[in-house]
Design a protein that fits this description.
Blueprint lengths: L6 E7 L5 H12 L4 E5 L8 H7 L11 H12 L4 E7 L4 E8 L4 E6 L6 H4 L4 E5 L3 H15 L4 H19 L8 E6 L13 E6 L13 E2 L6 E10 L2 E8 L5 H18 L13 E4 L2 E4 L1 H28 L6
Parallel strand pairs: 1-5, 1-6, 2-5, 6-7
Antiparallel strand pairs: 3-4, 7-8, 8-11, 9-10, 10-11, 12-13
């Protein structure tokens, strides 16, 4: 029986920004059996050969069936199955379509998930990934050569070819995010690309974020810190910046995790305990590493998804006739 309404998380960012890594950890927290993950990049209009012939990149909305994406997200949100296209990144062509049934939570990741108002209105939580650009390029080189069969020079050529489309179509979607995630290398550590990266979480007031001020551990110069919180103006918003150090201790990370969870269960005691065994894990070549800033980022996003689910449950409960409650 379909859900009356599912909870949708949107994860948007440029190629190799970390969308799949973020989504995988969140699905582990929520329970993979309760999560449907789809990729909007499957909605490409042209395969790799056709894009090359037409001189168009996958980042351009004209290269994607945006209208079908809008229809499918609306159907999934209302609990209905879809027949989703499948783009094969290894072959650069399309595989047979896939029958997708929505579960309680749906994670939608991709390049253009926030491109139109019709797409954006389907999400309960919107996240944009904006890692340091040089870091993203390193990640893309590693991924596309190891997993997609490209030569390094082909990856660099593609990055150059896509640069204008990234500026024109991908980056403007930051304006619609509730949370912007910015992984970056610590000062003076250009070689760091994984487990000890710092992260800045830009929290917009479009969601009720948990108060983490009691956990702040930040020196006056801001250099020796586990977690810092600051407020700044960003266009028309007053946003909260949460900076988490890649060198945060196991103890401090566990304390923040417990604090986020406590705030959730204090508000909604009926929620079960989060599952977090694999949270913060990421693949680095053949090695699986773990990052505390990544884990805490995934947990904060999961916090908002669970909050949305509980609020929806209460709304549905209030809408029921008294005899059915």
């Amino acid at each position: 029986m379909p859900y009356q309404r599912t909870i949708l998380l949107g994860v948007v960012g440029d190629s190799a920004a970390g969308k799949t890594t973020i989504s995988t950890g969140i699905a582990e927290i929520l329970g993979p059996e309760q999560v449907t993950v789809i990729c909007t990049d499957d909605y490409h209009r042209y395969n790799r050969r056709q894009r090359k012939e037409r001189g168009i990149t996958a980042l351009n909305p004209a290269c994607n069936y945006i209208d079908i994406m809008e229809q499918h997200l609306d159907l999934l949100r209302r609990g209905h199955p879809i027949l989703k296209p499948v783009y094969n990144h290894s072959t650069g062509d399309f595989d047979p379509p896939e029958y997708v049934e929505p579960r309680e939570f749906i994670i939608v990741e991709g390049l253009l998930g926030f491109h139109t108002k019709a797409l954006r209105r389907n999400y309960d939580v919107k996240v944009y990934l904006a890692p340091e650009e040089e870091l993203r390029i390193l990640w893309k080189l590693k991924r596309d050569t190891a997993k997609r069969g490209y030569r390094p020079e082909e990856v660099r050529e593609a990055l150059l070819r896509r640069s204008d489309d990234s500026v024109n179509f991908i980056q403007p979607q930051q304006a619609y995010a509730d949370i912007i995630v910015k992984f970056h290398r610590p000062a003076g550590q250009a070689e760091e690309t994984g487990a000890h990266l710092d992260v800045r979480l830009v929290l917009r007031p479009t969601l009720p974020h948990p108060n983490l001020s009691e956990l702040v551990e930040c020196s006056e110069n801001g250099k020796d810190r586990a977690i810092c919180v600051s407020i700044e103006r960003q266009d028309d918003w007053l946003v909260e910046n949460v900076d988490i150090s890649g060198r945060i201790s196991d103890e401090k990370a566990a304390q923040i995790e417990e604090s986020i969870w406590r705030r959730l269960t204090e508000r909604y005691p009926s929620l079960g305990r989060l599952r977090s065994e694999k949270v913060g894990s990421f693949q680095d070549g053949a090695v699986v590493n773990r990052s505390h800033p990544l884990a805490l980022t995934q947990l904060l996003i999961a916090y908002h998804i669970l909050l949305s689910r509980q609020e929806l449950n209460e709304e549905l409960q209030r809408a029921m006739p008294p005899l059915m409650r």
